[in-house]
Each structure stands twice: as structure tokens, then as C-alpha cells.
Amino acid sequence: DIASKILAKKPKYDLAFYFKCNLKVASYRRWLDIKKKVSLTKVRKSLQQRTLMDKKRKNSPLIKVQDAILIRTDKLSKEEVLNKMSKSIEKIIK
């Protein structure tokens, strides 16, 4: 499959993050970001469509590589996400 071919190229990285967020939470946050100019339903449908397109695209599909650190952003604030990332980066640097 596509993911296997991409991973076979063995991209070089020291650390990878994969961010995951519940669609309802992500939609609500985006809706607030755009100051409620579009209905929440439209925002949700748009995000769902975008995610599906990103996962199914031929070049560089959105996939979680095996050793990527999963960060559930729906359960964390922006500051908590940054703190979690910073701690992971510090471990690599040391």
C-alpha cells in the first residue's frame, strides 16, 4: 500500500509527532477561530472532508508513522500541547 512505500523510503527524522483531535472538538475550535462566520455544521463537514482528502492523497498522505508520538489535542490546551512536545524534544536532545 501507499504507506508502506512511503515508509520504505525511510525519511530521516529524530522525532515525529502525530496530532489527533476529535472532530467535534476540532470543529468547535475552528468555528471559534473564524469568529462564527460559517455554521458549525459547515465547519465540521469541511474538516471531515479535508482530513479524508489528506489521508487518501497520493503524495505524502497523512499517516502516523510507527514511532511518532501521538498527541491527543482534543484533551489538551495549546499550552499543554506545547509542553508535551517540549518534554519529548528535551529527551531527544539530552
Report on this model:
The chain has 94 residues and is mainly α. The chain is 54% helix and 9% strand. It contains four helices and two strands. It has helices at residues 2-8, 23-33, 40-56, 78-93, and strands at residues 17-20, 69-72. The chain has a two-stranded parallel sheet with strand order 1-2. Helix 2 (23-33) crosses helix 3 (40-56). The radius of gyration is 16 Å and the shape is flat. It starts with a helix and ends with a helix. The model has no long low-confidence stretch (mean pLDDT 90).
Strand and helix map with partners:
Blueprint: H1 2-8, E1 17-20, H2 23-33, H3 40-56, E2 69-72, H4 78-93
Parallel strand pairs: 1-2
Helix pairs in contact: 2-3
Quick tags:
9% strand; 94 residues; mainly alpha; two-stranded parallel sheet
| Strand fraction | 5-15%
The coarse silhouette is flat
> Considering DSSP H and I runs of 4 or more, what fraction of the residues is helical?
40-55%
What is the CA-CA span between the terminal residues? 36 Å
Per DSSP E runs of 2 or more residues, the count of β-strands stands at 2
Q: What order do the SSEs take from the amino end to the carboxyl end, as H and E?
A: HEHHEH
Per DSSP, the total helix count is 4
> By helix and strand content, what is the structural category?
mainly alpha
Give a short account of the largest sheet: 2 strands, parallel
Unreliable stretches, pLDDT < 50, 5 or more residues? none
Mean pLDDT: 90
| Strands in their spatial order, largest beta sheet | 1-2
Radius of gyration: 16 Å
